[in-house]
Here is the input.
Amino acid sequence: MRSARMTGIIAVCLALAAAANFAAAREASEVEVPPPQTVKKRKDILDVLVPIPSASSDVGDNGCRVRSSPKETFTEADADLLHVAFETLIAEVIGRYSVRAIIDPPAKFAASLSELDAGTRTLVMLDVLRDGLGRDGLHTFFFMSGAEHAPAIRDALQSAGMTREHELFTRAMGLFGPTYPLEEEARAKRFSYSSLDTPLNDFDRQMLDIAAQFGAREDFDRALVAYVERVPALWQRIEAKRAQLGEVARLRYLLTAIAKRARTWETADADAGTRLASIPKEQRTLLVM
Here is the structure.
């Protein structure tokens, strides 16, 4: 009898415990449970913005005289030091776009230019080519990674009315065969240039011949300026930049202009002092600093 009674008490306790658990579970189900915290996706290193010591913000008016037309020139003494070269202004305006060519593949790079007007897009592609013209001109360009944008550059040369450059650039692309290889590794296989202990092959010699006809970066600078001067709206936009450059950008140009005058990189170290002595003390001090 006592055993049966104890069994009944245990059964009741178990039932009450089960009921309590059910009620707790039901109550918990009716309480809003906050969603688990999502793990913040880490930024790609290429998307992280960092301050660049050599950069400076544009200003409203730095006092520099802006030309009224491409025909106007600066003729006063020290004009090369007092006035930023127009090709430098071009780089200041579009460099923020063209620099992405060494990071982004062709489709992504083209998409990044979609908001620009047609003339500026053409100019950006021409600037990508200018940046890639190394020691051996087009020969260097097609060996480096920037040549993956060659089809768009070819079209830009045509759009800019650079008939001679377009024809030579198209010939250079044709050396790779009927289908131009966008992949850098595929292009590199055609060059013996990639190995210092290997003589140049026929491909190298043909490319170097076309490169010599195309010209060096300095030659293309002049062609680039001529294109911009043929597009009035584009020219005005870039020329206006002359009065907006910050002091760091103007100092950077000044140092480059002084270095060109001294031409110290063209002489042996023993002759560098003579070159430096050929420029005024203030310029010499600034350059050495």
Summary: The two ends are 108 Å apart (CA to CA). The chain has 15 helices and no strands. The CA atoms of residues 85 and 253 lie 8 Å apart. Confidence is low (pLDDT under 50) at residues 1-20, 22-31.
